[in-house]
Amino acid sequence: MIDPLILLFALGVAARLARSDLRFPEPVYEALSIYLLLAIGLKGGVELSHQPLAGLAWPAATAVVLGFAVPFMVFPLLRHLVGLARADAASVAAHYGSVSVVTFAIAVAFLERRGVAVESFMPVLLALMEAPGIIAGVLLARAGSLGGSTVLREVAVNKGIVLLAGGILVGFIAGGDGYASLKPLFSDLFRGVLALYLLELGLVVGGRFPDLRRAGWRLVCFGVVTPAVFGVLGLLCGAWMLGLSAGGAVVFGILMASASYIAAPAAMRMAVPEANPALGISAALAVTFPFNVFVNIPLLARLGGAL
Amino acid sequence: MSAATHRRCQLTIIAEFVLEQRLTAAVGRFGAHGYTVHEVRGASYADDGVRSRDGTGDTDRTIEMKIVCERDVAEAIAGHVLQEFAPNFSVRLLLSEVEVFRPGKY
After folding, report:
1. H or E segment to which residue B13 belongs
2. What is the model's pTM?
3. Percentage of chain A with pLDDT > 90?
4. Environment class of A182 (CB within 10 Å of its CB; exposed 0-12, middle 13-18, buried 19+)
């Protein structure tokens, strides 16, 4: 049975391609993304409060290092194989170094439906992997300089990071008892809100397809090959280096494979204004996100089960 | 009895949403007494197709800021925006004369 979340995403894409007048008002879209980020953070924080923190240090350090390293690995490909200018290549690289919260949520939902357990600290890794890739992208664009503290401050107080990291902290401090009163909103309704968000995201992705024609086939190929390679690397790293469970390794693979389309575009727009913002967001949203949802998550889950 | 009016300029800046904080800071720095801002949607028609800014995601959102002030203040703000932001961001600037009732406010 196909997950209705995926069907709603496909409905959004189809509606946009058919030029339907369906659209969500911007405040609704923003409210839905605030809800999702906060819900994932709170739930992760609460589950973390029940666990010893000692086992978190090694996966957390690895996640930060890999998040920072990915842009440096993909930058030469973007420069020489895709043929992008330095600023454009750095901006796209930052999108792929950072992570997609919604791809993470879909992967967790996919595994939950199949009864596969995932380590409770995975939302912490998600939060930790948001910023390093963006900082690496800025360093690549500016040949090693961050150009003052503004970039670091803007990345650190980016709404995605504030909601996710803040939610984890609040959930951790409040614990299960404190969270009980919020559970009807943030846990019971989560899948329904995610469904609404994916319908809207489908509309956005459908609207991004014309940008892909401008971006060219080489960037489209990059948007497929990169998550396929990093997904498998992340899966192997999660299973063998970090000692994660099969479910945890799949989610770590998806974190490595996903590309940011909320935090990175806004941060890179300000930090590297000479880069074309349409390239990164179109590749991340219109190529990599659907590839991860339709192909990579089921594929990694199958590979993860076989490891 | 009709109230007297006074001439001022209205500077309208249509710009990318991500610039809002920098624009509001500049408005205060150049001596304007205030501004209004709201979100808008739109598109431009280029040789290779329509580039729409339909407001989904922060980099696709657009604001329209209106500043009523003395002409020299409006020109200083416009000069700053043109120099700092116009080369790399989507920015439109419009200047028009308006009549106001309470000149001390502007």
Report:
1. strand B6-16
2. 0.87
3. 67
4. middle
The DSSP line for A157-192 is T-HHHHHHHHHHHHHHHHHHHHHTTTHIIIIITHHH
CATH for A201 = 1.20.1530.20
Count of Cβ atoms closer than 10 Å to residue A282 Cβ:
28
3-state secondary structure of B75: helix
**Total number of domains in chain A:** 1
Determine the residue of chain B that is closest to A261 in CA distance.
B57
Give domain status of residue A102, yes or no: yes
Amino acid at B23: L
- Give me the pLDDT at residue B46, please: 73
Burial of B102 (0-12, 13-18, 19+ CB in 10 A): exposed
Cα A117 to Cα A244: distance, rounded to the nearest angstrom: 11
**Domain assignment of residue A18, yes or no:** no
Contact state of B58 with A262 under an 8 Å Cβ cutoff: yes
- Distance, CA of A223 to CA of A229 (rounded, Å): 11
Of A192, A195, A215, A209, the residue nearest A285 (C-alpha): A209
Residue to mutate among A26, A30, A88, with most B CBs inside 10 A, is A26
Residues making up chain B, counted from first to last: 106
Cα separations in angstroms, A254 against A23, A37, B11, B37: 28, 17, 47, 39
**How many residues are given for chain A?**
307
In a domain? residue A19: no
Q: What type of residue sits at position A160?
A: G
| Domain span holding position A230 | 24-306
Position A14 in a domain: no
Chain A: give the shortest CA distance to residue B94, in Å. Answer: 23
For the stretch A212-227, pLDDT in tens is 887 789 999 999 999 9
The pLDDT tens digits of the residues spanning A142-162 come to 876 766 667 777 777 888 889
